TrEMBL record:
Record-given protein name: ABC transporter ATP-binding protein
Record-linked Pfam families: ABC_tran
Taxonomic superkingdom: Bacteria
SUPFAM superfamilies found in the cross-reference section: P-loop containing nucleoside triphosphate hydrolases
Segments forming domain ABC transporter: 4-228
GO molecular function: ATP binding; ATP hydrolysis activity
Lineage: Bacteria, Bacillati, Bacillota, Bacilli, Bacillales
Keywords: ATP-binding, Nucleotide-binding, Transport
InterPro entries: AAA+_ATPase, ABC_transporter-like_ATP-bd, ABC_transporter-like_CS, ABC_transporter_ATP-bind, P-loop_NTPase
Length: 234
């Protein structure tokens, strides 16, 4: 079942056209990563999907309904954790539902238990490592009501070991907490590890050059695809 559809999306800032003829269907429960050079329009696609921008042309469809410029249907995780230092771990995770007036205590308890955060729920962000802060940021997005999750380079600030640990933790959480996810990353390795499909942008204005299905690839096929992606993104 199609959850999100971008139909012939184009966008320009003043006279600078950034996107042209972007077409993408995202299935319910799918994890899709968008790859492309810096300045290729990845963040603009996120802003259009989340309703922060209305596309110059084209339509954003959610469950078959046009939602251009509409907000409230996405949960967002930024590059930096953006936690509120005066709120505890628990209070930061609750923030999205608190804003919407939809606090669910039973769900919070399950999230804390599943993530192993019961022992730190009353701590403040300044007592946490960078990796733990990113985990809290992800749980806040996961707990925020919204049919789509947008992850904007969520692990780019982490060291390599912490990043790998975070990726594995994310996979474990999403195995249980089924969500439809769009992610931006500059790491091909990360994209191959986490995604069901990859979207590669190219050109100025950017359009989708190719989509790759990652599911079911063996190690040799992944190595070959990584090499192909590196050449495409250079």
């Amino acid at each position: 079942m199609t959850k999100l559809e971008l139909r012939n999306i184009g966008h320009a800032f003043s006279h600078n056209q950034v996107l042209k003829n972007v077409n993408l269907e995202v299935r319910d429960g799918e994890f899709i990563t968008i790859l492309g050079p810096s300045g290729s329009g990845k963040s603009t696609i996120f802003n259009i999907t989340g309703g922060m921008l209305e596309p110059s042309v084209g339509d954003v469809m959610l469950n078959g309904e046009r939602i251009n410029g509409c907000r409230g249907h996405v949960a967002y995780m930024p590059q930096s954790h953006s936690l509120m230092p005066w709120r505890t771990v628990l209070q930061n995770i609750e923030l999205g539902r608190e804003i919407k007036g939809q606090i669910d205590q039973a769900r919070m308890e399950k999230l804390l238990e599943r993530s192993g955060f019961e022992a730190i729920q009353n701590q403040y962000p300044d007592s946490l490592s960078g990796g733990m802060k990113q985990r809290v940021s992800f749980l806040r997005a996961l707990n925020t009501p919204g049919e789509l999750m947008l992850l904007d380079e969520p692990f780019s600030a982490l060291d390599e070991i912490t990043r790998i640990d975070m990726q594995e933790w994310l996979q474990e959480i999403l195995t249980v907490e089924k969500r439809t996810v769009l992610m931006i990353t500059h790491s091909i390795e990360e994209a191959l590890k986490l995604s069901d499909r990859l979207v590669v942008l190219e050109g100025k204005p950017a359009t989708i050059r190719q989509l790759f299905d990652v599911n079911g690839l063996d190690e040799q096929e992944r190595v070959a695809l990584k090499s192909q992606l590196l050449n495409m993104l250079r």
